[in-house]
Amino acid sequence: MSTPFILLINPWIYDFAAYDLWSKPLGLLYIAAILKSNGFGVHFIDCLDPNHPRMHELFGTKILARQDTGRGRFYNQQVSKPDALKSINNKRYKRYGITPEIFEDSVSSLPKPQAVLVTSMMTYCYPGVFEVINRVKARYPDVPVVLGGVYATICHEHARKLSGADIVVRGPGESEVLRIVAELTRHEIAALPDIYNPDSLPYPAYELLSSKAALPIMTARGCPFNCTYCASSLLCNGFSRRTPLKVADEIEHWAQHEGVTDFAFYDDAFMFDPGAHALPLLQEMIKRNLPIRLHFPNGLHIRYFTQEIADLMMKAGCKTIRLGLETADTNRQKLTGGKVVTEEFINTAGFLRMAGFTSREVGVYILAGLPEQEAREISDTIQLVKAVGLKPIIAEYSPIPGTALWDRAVAASSFPIADEPLFHNNSLLPCQWERFSLHDLEKLKLECRITTCTFPR
Questions:
Q1: Model confidence at 64, in pLDDT bands (50, 70, 90)?
Q2: Do 149 and 228 have their domain in common?
């Protein structure tokens, strides 16, 4: 029997803005690794690939601004806005990633697949998903397309009705996708990992990437918290962790065998119960003394920081730390989940400064645009972050169906967010109102960069 061939695709981003913070389709690459271990032939097309050689030929290497740590801009081209967004006059809509011609050439250069697996990111990025599926279906109308990922999970019915995919999968996809692929190809799955035990997963199929200079590392799945604005509990049922030594082994593997220098951690709760996770992992990385840099672009839980942890992060080579403060308003801290209080933030800032970190390495996320949130609250939070010597970073709120805050967002938004996921886009400030407008947002972003307060007390 011939080897079944599966094509995996990471779609384009269609949006007003996009930036690569060590972004990789980690779930899709885990599935690719499991498929390969079960004897499948696998090929991967990354529509977002910033290192694609033909894009370098078309645009030149100087056009794409990238940092040596592995983050930076995507290639992009301005495109027409979807009909729902035609009234948004002050923003340019773009396709981020490789050109459609390069995508078509990539597909045509491969053998006909027996199934195509497509992942998805934020709900409002679905136009890139639709285009990928349409192009695949135009070439191979009889090949089944399986769609998974964030959009497919959060907006499942929208994706099922409109995406063009034959099958739409919710939640972590390893078990379900493998079952589907086995049925479609009549190829037996002999090695099936336990999705509730992340130690059982193989390393992601990073060999499929065009560049491995910087890689994301998963140390846990899910989150023990349930913040009202966050989709983590919708995307992953439960919370499970890898053994810290196994995480260190994977980092050492990629560093020694592939020369990877930068590793990004996207866990939703890396700092939770630090004695069982963060502390032993950081201690192990110090012990192994690898020539690497560590990055934490997701908002780390402030409550669990100690001086010991801050010191270990410095010694382990942490170069990017982001803290999830969200707001300094006491009432909103309680209403959104109670994961931090201001005193804990001030203490953590002191720990990090004492360890030697500065605002160059440590940024603090501040949520802006929550339902009924006023500009002054955000300004007060910015001033607090500056007062402790760290960098404030505005994170615009994106309404997410199924979260505890969703109904309030629907009621507060002037956009039809319940009917059209394009209006979930944080660039639109979906819950703007008379006390917090797009003009206020621009003033707040300026306030993040200057020392003078711009909102009255």
A1: confident
A2: no
Of residues 133, 17, 16, the one with CA closest to residue 81: 16
**Rounded Cα gap, residues 341 and 425, in angstroms:** 28
Any idea which residue has 């009924």 for tokens? 372
What's the whole-number mean pLDDT along residues 122-133? 98
**Six-digit token string for 391:** 């960098």
User: Cα torsion at 41, 260, 286, 348 (round to 10°)?
Assistant: -100
Q: pLDDT tens digits, residue range 158-167? A: 999 999 999 9
CB count, 10 Å around CB of 162? 12
The set of long-range contacts for 312-318, using a CB threshold of 8 Å and a minimum separation of 24, is: 312/279, 312/282, 312/283, 312/286, 313/282, 313/352, 313/355, 313/357, 314/355, 314/356, 314/357, 315/282, 315/286, 316/282, 316/285, 316/286, 317/285, 317/292, 317/293, 318/293, 318/294, 318/361
In a domain, 198, yes or no: no
Is 191 inside any structural domain?
A: no
Give the CA diameter of the chain.
74
The SS3 of residue 108 is helix
241: β partners: 220
| Three-state secondary-structure class, residue 362 | strand
The answer as to whether 193 is a domain residue is no
Cβ neighbour number for residue 125 with a 10 Å cutoff: 23
Domain boundary among 185, 204, 224: 185
